[in-house]
Amino acid sequence: MSAAPEIARLAFGVPSPAAGSAPLTIGALARKLQLIASSPERWWGLVRFHTARSERIDLDLPGARYAAWLVVLAPGDPGHYCDCDLMMLVAGEAAEESVADGGGVTTDLKAGRARVHGHGQVHQIRAAGTGFAVTLHVQASA
């Protein structure tokens, strides 16, 4: 006999401790970023390609304790400044420029890999190839 059904019934009614009050950790934000990225049918229709400039597109996430947005990076545009907690390249080629203790650092972004930033660290992203790039960003709500 299995005790799993009884355990499941008991656990179903138990609220998680401080579910709504604790700030989201970087790991929890990374999970949210991955969930959003894995469902492009929910947001890809918002993407617009403007040849003259890069554009930020806020995602509407009712009840979320974090903000999420897309950035469409136009080729040849100087880029977009950002202060997100995590980001991910979802299409195209892009590079990130950030200021570190030793000066400016440029990093080529890999599609599907979460990039973590320190709290309040401003960085600049730009399309690295000859085409558009799309990045996805999340930031814990204050």
**Main sheet: strand order:** 1-2-9-4-7
Give the helices and strands as they follow along the chain: HHEEEEEEEEE
Class by helix and strand content? alpha+beta
The major β-sheet equals: 5 strands, antiparallel
> Helix coverage percent of residues?
10-25%
Quaternary structure of the protein? single chain
CATH homologous superfamily classification: Jelly Rolls
Overall, the morphology is globular
Task: Please tell me the total number of domains.
Answer: 1
Rg, Å, rounded: 18 Å
What's the number of helices? 2
- As for the CATH topology, it is Jelly Rolls
Description of the structure:
- The protein has helices at residues 4-12, 26-37, and strands at residues 55-59, 66-73, 80-82, 86-91, 94-100, 103-108, 114-116, 123-127, 133-140.
- It is of the alpha+beta class.
- It has a single domain, classed as Jelly Rolls.
- The strands form two sheets. It has a five-stranded antiparallel β-sheet. The chain has a four-stranded antiparallel β-sheet with strand order 3-8-5-6, with no helix packed on it.
- A hairpin with a 6-residue loop joins strand 1 and strand 2.
- The relative contact order is 0.22.
